[in-house]
Design goal:
The protein has 358 residues and is mainly alpha-helical. The protein is built from 15 helices and no strands. Helix 12 packs parallel to helix 15. The chain is rod-shaped and about 175 Å long.
Length: 358
């Protein structure tokens, strides 16, 4: 009995020991960049190849001139995009060593891309759908990007089977961009919305401009017809003035060549009129006293008419000059818009002056 109990105890103890050994304690192990060099030896070698390709003077570090030249010549980058990438690549360090480049790649988010994320990048950013199946089958993920970008790697040819040199170069340049400068979403939805808004705004402004231009043209046609009317009135006014001057000249000449017979007849008629006037007034001198007043009244009327004539002529000149100025400004875009939006008051002024002249 004691032996049986002992055997049972031994079996239970063995089971407990086996269960304890089976339950391993899991811990989060943080891998450093130095340790990852050994685990991802091929990836580290690819980063070294990229660094060697950028380090023209083989000094062991990449300065700003070398990185700028590499982006210009090898990656064909220009303008603001090159400046943005250069600042991101160097940050505060003007000399990038191999370890600096490896640590930056080790800490990047792109290195943690899954195979599906890498396929999505190949399809939507690189636009090489023909190699997507190979990446899926090989289960290639973000850690392989330096091997894509390496100038001396045969990974693209042997492992992925990319025969086209154009495809290999395209994939290499895009991989270089991601490894060195990080991924930038080119399919930015905010950018698309902004571009669509700007296009809509431009179309609206163009439509408004065309409408206002047409309205300005109609206003100019109206002003041109009014200018023609003013010039006709000016011509008629000058004709009347000429006729009046001719009539005055004729009267002056006629008064100067009155013959003696007419003067005698006028003297007789004047004496007869004086006798009749004295008879009608019963000797009073009132009507004769009114003659200077009548003469002064006539002179005042003539002066007033002459003043009105001068003012009328001045108004006509100002109206013509106003229309001429508006016509000269027609060619300007800003003036056309001003004319279309604010020409009503100017047109009304011309209308009122024409009405006053009439």
């Amino acid at each position: 009995m004691s032996r049986t109990m002992l055997s049972v105890r031994i079996i239970v103890l063995a089971l407990l020991l086996s269960a304890g050994l089976g339950q391993r304690v899991t811990r989060n192990v943080e891998v450093t960049a130095e340790e990852e060099k050994i685990r991802d030896k091929l990836g580290y070698e690819a980063v070294k190849e990229i660094h060697r390709d950028m380090d023209d003077d083989h000094s062991g570090s990449i300065d700003r001139n070398e990185s700028t030249g590499f982006m210009k010549e090898d990656m064909q980058m220009r303008g603001s995009e090159r400046t943005r990438r250069e600042n991101k690549f160097h940050r505060d360090d003007d000399a990038i060593s191999v370890d600096d480049l490896w640590e930056a790649w080790f800490e990047s988010d792109e290195r943690s891309w899954s195979s599906d994320r890498l396929v999505d990048w190949i399809l939507n950013d690189v636009n090489l759908p023909s190699i997507a199946d190979s990446i899926k089958k090989k289960k290639v993920d973000g850690k392989f990007l330096p091997r894509f970008a390496s100038p001396n790697s045969d990974f693209l040819t042997k492992e992925l089977g990319i025969k086209s040199s154009v495809y290999r170069q395209k994939l290499r340049l895009n991989s270089l961009d991601v490894v060195l400068f990080g991924y930038k979403d080119n399919n930015n939805r905010t950018k698309d919305i902004l571009l669509a808004f700007l296009a809509l705004l431009f179309t609206s402004l163009l439509f408004i401009y065309v409408r206002q231009k047409q309205k300005a043209q109609r206003k100019m046609n109206e002003l041109s017809s009014k200018l023609t009317e003013l010039k006709c009135m000016e011509s008629e006014f000058e004709d009347v003035q000429k006729m009046l001057n001719d009539e005055r000249s004729k009267r002056s000449v006629t008064d100067g060549v009155v013959n003696r017979t007419e003067m005698e007849n006028l003297r007789v008629q004047l004496e007869e009129a004086e006798r009749r006037l004295e008879a009608n007034t019963n000797g009073s001198g009132t009507p004769l006293a009114l003659q200077p007043l009548l003469r002064r009244t006539c002179e005042n009327e003539m002066t007033f008419l002459e003043k009105q004539r001068q003012e009328c002529f001045k108004e006509m000149k100002e109206a013509i000059e106003m229309v001429d100025r508006l016509q000269k400004k027609q060619g300007s875009v800003l003036s056309s818009l001003k004319l279309a939006t604010g020409a009503a008051s100017t047109s009304d002024q011309v209308d009122s002056r024409i009405f006053a002249l009439k």
